[in-house]
Amino acid sequence: MQTILGANGIIGEELVKELKAKYTSDIRIVGRNPKKINESDTLHKADLLKPDEVKEAVKGSDIVFLTVGLPYNSKIWLRDWEPLMENVIRACMEYNAKLVYFDNTYAYPQDAIEQTEETPMTSTGKKGIARATAAKLMLKAMEEKKIEGAICRAPEFYGPGKTKAFTNALVFESLKTGKKPKIFLRDDVLRTLIYTPDAGKAMALIGNTLDAYGTTWHLPCDDNRLTYREFIEEISTQLGRNIDYMVLKPWLINILALFNTNLKETKELLPRYAIDNLFISDKFKKVFPDFKVTTYKEGIKAILDDYVIS
Fold this sequence. Notes:
- By secondary structure, this protein is α/β, with parallel strands linked by helices.
- The chain folds into two domains: 2-155 and 195-218, NAD(P)-binding Rossmann-like Domain (Rossmann fold, 3-Layer(aba) Sandwich); 157-192 and 223-307, UDP-galactose 4-epimerase, domain 1, CATH 3.90.25.10.
- Helices cover 41% and strands 16% of the residues.
- The strands form four sheets. Strands 3-2-1-4-5-6-11 form a seven-stranded parallel sheet, with helices on both faces. Strands 7-10 form a two-stranded parallel ribbon.
- The longest helix has 22 residues, at 74-95.
């Protein structure tokens, strides 16, 4: 059995679809209010902050994928990521289940240096500290041979369906509602974005590849990075009309954050939008050369079609 802890976010959904398509029909979806993605899925209610419930959720699993998302709140992240990860690791140890953890780049320093699997987790932001704590617990358990594990790390998302990310919210959701797209800080720096179906497919592949355990993987992204200006230009080309947009400057963000909780929570991450973001996924591409990475052109088209934007 392959179990997904927190499967009803976009990454969990894409992962479950791929597992069913290529690897197994024996899938358990775990959450406080789990919902089936495939008709054959098994549902299991559990609170990952309760050790006994986590053990019951993991029991009988060969592979456990941790794709849970906590509420977008720094206090909650600092409070809950450490005990949640400890609970999952202990459960996997008890039942000898492999663990594959979906992580992000918040723990990395917010600079323009290329990010690889060896980049130190030295963020001073609250969310970055919380994610670093969780990742280090996982790495320690792997190094001490307490579990067979793999960390799958991804940069900012973009994608169809219920993808929740800054690019989707500020660009595509704005277009869908007839509003002007918005961009944080600058439109002339390079961004690395991961297409959410690619993230789910790559995570399923890693989890079902025996030799992929024991290390961290940067999930695959298109290396032909775009600036947000070029991103909007590609949207304009595909729609056949010029798309005007707004660059949100720091002073405006500070004002808007007074009335928007999510934006207030985002402020600690804003420095990365003023510099090139160079997330490197060469390791994955070398080991899995047949994996088809979605280009930005292809990804933008799929989102525009999904959002029914014309």
